[in-house]
Structures are given as C-alpha cells and as structure tokens.
Amino acid sequence: MPPPPTAGSERAVPPRAGDRVIETQGLTKAYRGGQLAVDRLDLAVPRGSVFGFLGPNGSGKTTTIRMLMGLIEPTAGSARVLGATMPGAGRRVLPRVGALIEGPALYGFLSGRDNLLRFDAADPTADPRTRAERVGRALERVGLAAAAGKKARAYSLGMKQRLGLASALLQPRELLVLDEPTNGLDPQGMREIRALVRELAADGTTVFLSSHLLDEVEQVCTHAAVMARGRLIIQGTVADLSATVLGSRGSGRLTVTTPDPADAVRVLKEQGVTDLRVTDDRVSGELPTTAGPDGQEPWELSDLNAALVHAGVRVRGFGAERPSLEDVFVHLTGEGFDVAG
Ligand SMILES: Nc1ncnc2c1ncn2[C@@H]1O[C@H](COP(=O)(O)OP(=O)(O)OP(=O)(O)O)[C@@H](O)[C@H]1O
Ligand SMILES: [Mg+2]
User: Fold this and answer.
1) Per-residue model confidence as pLDDT tens digits over 181-203
2) Do residues 125 and 95 lie in contact, with contact meaning Cβ atoms separated by under 8 Å?
3) Of 20, 46, 188, 293, which shows the fewest CB atoms inside 10 Å?
4) Do 191 and 286 have their domain in common?
C-alpha cells in the first residue's frame, strides 16, 4: 500500500476511509486441545490512531498479536498488516513495524546497551556507522541511559520492559505493536511510557497497544477494541465507546462543594444540569448529555466551573464522575473485568 498523502504540516488530515494499518477478518486461533483463544475476530485499526486492545487476562490479546506478527499461524481467517497478508508478507512488512511482545527475549549476560547493539546488528537495513548513536537515543527515550551498562539479568521487570521497548524504537516505524507495554512498571514508569506513546503518535506513528488496564487505555488511546473470552465485544473511538453507555446512564454526575449551595443550584440548573441535590455544602447533579445551554455547542466541564465562579459562587471543590471504559465493559458483557475462565 502506498504511504498516505499526509506529510509534514498536513499530518492533521484525518486518515482516508479504509486506510487501515491492521485489518483482520474472521481471525481465529484454537490451541491444541483448548477452547478458542481468538474467535472470529474482525479488527480494523486506522492509520494514525493510538489503538487500545483491551481485555481481561486470558481474553486473547497476546494470541492475536502473535498472529499479527506472523509468530503463529491462525486456525482460520486472515490478518493484514500495513496492507499485506500475514504471515506470508512478514519479511517485507515487519521491518516497518516495531514490536514488543510479552517477555522480550534478552541476553541476561549482556548489558542493556549490548543487547540493543545486538538487536540493531541483526537488522540488515541498519547502518553500522550510526549504530551506537541509535542505541544511545533509544536508551535515552525509555529512561534507561543511566542503567545501560548493567547486565540485563540484573534488570527489574520494569527495566526489562523498557529495554524491550527501546529495541522496538531503534528505527522509525510506521506501526508499533506493544503487548502490555506498562506491565511491571511502577506508576512513574507507567506515566513515562504513556508520555512516550503520545509523543510517538504525535510524530505520526500508529500505536497498537494491548492492556488490561481500562484507565490506561482511556488516558492514552484514541480508539479501542474490547475483547472478552476471545471475542470482540466492541471497537471504535474511545469517545464512541463511552457514548454507548451514556444513553443508559447519562453523562455522569457533578459534585460541587460550596458555602453558597442555593446559588450553585440556580446556576447549574441554567447550565442544563439536572437532578440537582443538596447535602450541607455539597451540590450534586446529572451532567447534560451532549450540548450546552444553547443546545448547540458541546459543553466542557470548565464552562460549568466558569459559570459558577462568574456568578459569584465560591467553589471549594469541583469534580465529575464520567462513565468509564470499565462501565462500558460491564454494560456490554454483564460481567466484571475479571480473568476469563
Ligand atoms: N501456547 C498456548 N497453548 C495453549 N493455550 C494457550 C497458549 N497461549 C495462550 N493460551 C490460552 O489462550 C487464551 C488466550 O490467551 P492470551 O495469552 O492470548 O490472553 P491475553 O489476553 O494476552 O491475556 P493476558 O492479559 O493474561 O496477557 C487463554 O485461555 C490461554 O490459556
Ligand atoms: Mg497477554
């Protein structure tokens, strides 16, 4: 597939309809003697998206990624990556894809830096003259520069995960496929990886990442697909997924803490907030669904806060509870987000 006609400043142009970097049809995997690990999966990942592949433990995420990367053969169905059919086109396509799959294969007796030098040397397209520089940059990007000289067997799980990610970042890629990239990281490490994913996406890389953490996907992804027991439950933009539960649940509830509850109720009512309740210095209400008081513009939470402040209401606390992807999941499956049986 030719690259899309989006370069430099034209990057903001939305992807062409049908411009998908990953597309599967009826993709199915049955392991020997087991139930279906992936069951007739139709996945469509638009170019330029940060796509969250979400599902509880055992729902088939890694199995899907292994098929996408040509590491295992599907039992049925097909998978296209960057327009080419896998696993057949692997040699041609995989150099344009950076991948981090469960437990990166590292040499424990080599330092982090030497592991990356080896990975880079295994890439026939990588210029040896710029190898050290490339490796240095990748270590820098994942926050491993200081620990680069340490043997990989002495790395913590989070450090190994970072090193695996660095190996996926040695070359600029069109597509990054990351299986649970924040697995084993502490909260600070998770934030760093999320920031990195956003940065890569801003540079135009499509990022496909699996996760069993709903809030992580909510924070970093533009699109998501939700899996349960090998089946696709829903896919679309994160906003659309949230909207599927809005119909039944409203947009969420707002709570304002103020010494002026009566004024707050009046202002919030004008702003379209319904079901207003007052308990001492707390006013809570149901947020308007889609449009602001004029019925046109989409509203923002900050508008409500501004309206309160503008009317002289002393706002001491302001918080909203929106339906989360977890709500979406429970709403669609009727199950909690637990390990698949
Ligand atoms: N090599 C294998 N042989 C047999 N069954 C397997 C194999 N790998 C995975 N499975 C089974 O396939 C199903 C899906 O597993 P998979 O690893 O794809 O899930 P996952 O969504 O990646 O889970 P996690 O969040 O725990 O990584 C599970 O029921 C698992 O037990
Ligand atoms: Mg997995």
Assistant:
1) 888 888 888 888 888 899 889 98
2) yes
3) 188
4) no
